[in-house]
Amino acid sequence: MKRPTFLKSLLGAAIAVASFTTLAQSQHDGSAARPLRVILIPADGGTEDGTRKDFQPIFGAISQATGLNFDIKVGQSYSAVIEAMCGGAADIAWYGPASYLQAKARGCAELLALAVRNGESVYYSGIFSRADAGIRGIADLKGKRIALGDVNSTSSFNVPVAMMIAAGVDPARQAGAINMAGSHANVLKALAEGLVDAGGASFDSFEKAVNANAIDPAKVKVIVKSTPIPYPPLAIHPKVAEALKAKLRDAFNNIDKLPGISKEQIRGYGGGKVDGYTSKVSEADMAAAGKMFELVTDSVKVEIMKKASAR
Q1: Are 177 and 311 in contact (CB under 8 A)?
Q2: For the chain, which residues score pLDDT lower than 70?
Q3: Pairing state of beta strands 234-236 and 145-148?
Q4: What domains are defined for the chain?
């Protein structure tokens, strides 16, 4: 019997967590012998090298300006990134707001910096559908095949599900089928290939897919766009030395002025160009973002996973 997709994902996360836990040790200091370990969520799954390359110029410029060393990796899942940080196997992590709040609640993450684009540090989630699927609004998702990303993803799971529930659609009971695709890129791929009628993803990932010719914008339309969401944050482990935190925050505040980096190289979520980064961030604003997906309780997640496994 073929193992359900979500069980494969859970097994992969467990293996990744075990490997990260094996590496756990005291927080590093950025020396050549103990580089700061950076772990990134696989927001655009299937593009691990691309995700790493988006951030390498930024950390490279900071390394050149400060003498700090970094070891950058992409986690196998959102859960693996949380566990790496909370198990002491990472010093810096790039999260989505939902996964950041989980790590924050466990006392193993605090805000380090947010990207700034057009003067703001926000992005958007959406529910997209095939143009020929006969979907005009959220209510039309009943009976349709829906793709969602990682259960810990803010904009490919939590916000799309919250928007459905708020509009009176229970995806676990009223969707025709649910495909837990695991990432934004996979959601959009399933949509492009006609495997689903609709899916949840960030607008950054949608734009990236369009620019890469991975999806035809003429064949896909926006059903609903979310309210602004705080930009996916870079976070640091609370046990990293305070002087080191201050040095990193100063570097991120001035990333657009550091030698060895061009404006073209300053990238953020989905590889999109951003103006820079700011360390003037608010834990209160990030916590408030959690209210966007309060409707997505643990029981809702379990029911959606059960629905997905029944395909």
Answers
A1: yes
A2: 1-25, 44-50, 311
A3: unpaired
A4: 5-117+230-283 (3.40.190.10), 125-226 (3.40.190.10)
